[in-house]
Amino acid sequence: MLIKIPASGECRESEVTTEAAYLSRRQILGGVMLSGAAAGLPALAKASERYPGVTSAPAPKWFADKLASARWQAVVPDGEAITPFADASQYNNFYEFGPNKGDPARHASTLKVEPWSVLIDGEVDQPGRYALEELCSESRLQERIYRLRCVEAWSMVIPWLGFPLADLIRKAQPHSSAKFIRFETAYRSEEMRGTRSGFGLIDWPYIEGLRMDEAMHPLTLLAVGMYGRTLPNQNGAPLRLVVPWKYGFKSIKSIVRISFVREQPITTWQSMAPQEYGFYANVNPKVSHPRWSQARERRLPGSLFSTNLRDTQLFNGYAEQVAGLYSSMDLSKDY
Ligand code: MTE
User: Where does Mo-molybdopterin bind (predicted)?
Assistant: First the structure.
């Protein structure tokens, strides 16, 4: 198990110090010791000390303010290292910037991420257009170190910074008629070269969706950062979804609209190839993609001498927390 969810959003300073002591005793963060904690610095050591070598991007004031009180997660040492930032930020899927893995890192800087607002609409009491900082205002930033398993059979381990989607749902006050949530990515062809190029298969904007109980689950995160800094544009700045037990394509990037709806939304990959990509997209080693097996995965980074293959886990290793959501479903039919 990679994550322990705090019982509540509250976290006393003493708990944080205990975590720092924990961190100082173990090799974490891809083989780097937390030198600040070892030297007796406060547990809320700067993110740059936690992730040495990770470039700290210029952050808006609201993010910097929140970072100071972020709740950092200790890694449960079960033999999995955090993926180096260089790999997580240079090997990406973000088709709005091109179909190749290096395209998003090369081209996503054209996306203007400040200011950013999100339209909340549909079956809710509090619809409206909210500035990103307003959406986050009542939530404390939490670090969540999650596995990310792409449907293409590669995986990473990424330390996200964000807040539970459930916080936003409570703020929006959905009606009981809202059974699903539909998410929409920005579609700005002048800033997203992939949307105006020949990769014409996708009907923009990119759309994703969750059932309400999946959306309310405490593992489901809205991320505004990773590796102790804001999200790089190629990773979905300034706001993306992270649903760690589902294939990565559910984790929609650069969200501009969140709609509370009655019916299951039609999502981008499902509408393009329904026999290959389902709405649920739960990670499952026993349900093959029609063109390849999902039993194993390639943990990035690999090397010339090792492909770093490992067995894929049901629900990406989060079965204990989420299997109950699907107890009445046939996972081979509702894939
Ligand atoms: N969101 C949008 N808007 N466009 C995309 O092309 N790709 C998805 C998902 N979110 C995608 C997206 C896929 S297929 C994956 S595997 C993850 O983003 C990759 O996230 P990463 O690049 O941060 O690793």
Answer: 92, 95-96, 150, 185, 235, 240, 251-253
Nearest protein CA to atom 4 of ligand 1, as residue: 94
Cα 254 off chain centre by: 11
Place of tokens 């210029």: 58
- pLDDT tens digit sequence for 286-314: 999 999 999 999 999 998 888 999 999 99
Model confidence at 15: pLDDT above 60: no
Query: What are the residue boundaries of the structural domains of the chain, listed by start?
Result: 10-326
The answer to whether 280 is annotated as binding is no
Alpha-helix runs per DSSP H in 99-225: 103-107, 132-136, 165-172, 212-216
Radius of gyration of the chain (CA): 19
pTM: 0.89
Smallest Cα–Cα separation from 54: which of 36, 78, 32, 25? 32
Q: Is the pLDDT of residue 21 over 80?
A: no
Question: The sheet that has 180-185: what strands, in order across it?
Answer: 128-131, 117-122, 255-261, 180-185, 207-211
Ligand 1 pocket: which residues have CB below 6 Å? 92-96, 148, 150, 185, 206, 235-236, 248-249, 251-254
- The more confident residue out of 272 and 46 is 272
Q: What are 225's strand-pairing partners?
A: 161, 230
100 is in an annotated binding site: no
Q: Which pLDDT tens digit goes with each residue over 97-113?
A: 999 999 999 999 999 99
Q: Where are the beta strands (DSSP E) in the chain?
A: 117-122, 128-131, 142-149, 154-164, 180-185, 207-211, 221-226, 229-230, 240-242, 255-261, 296-299, 309-311
> Does CATH place domain 10-326 in 3.90.420.10?
yes
Asked if residues 180 and 210 have their Cβ atoms less than 8 Å apart, the reply is yes
Cα of 298 to ligand 1 centre, how many Å?
17
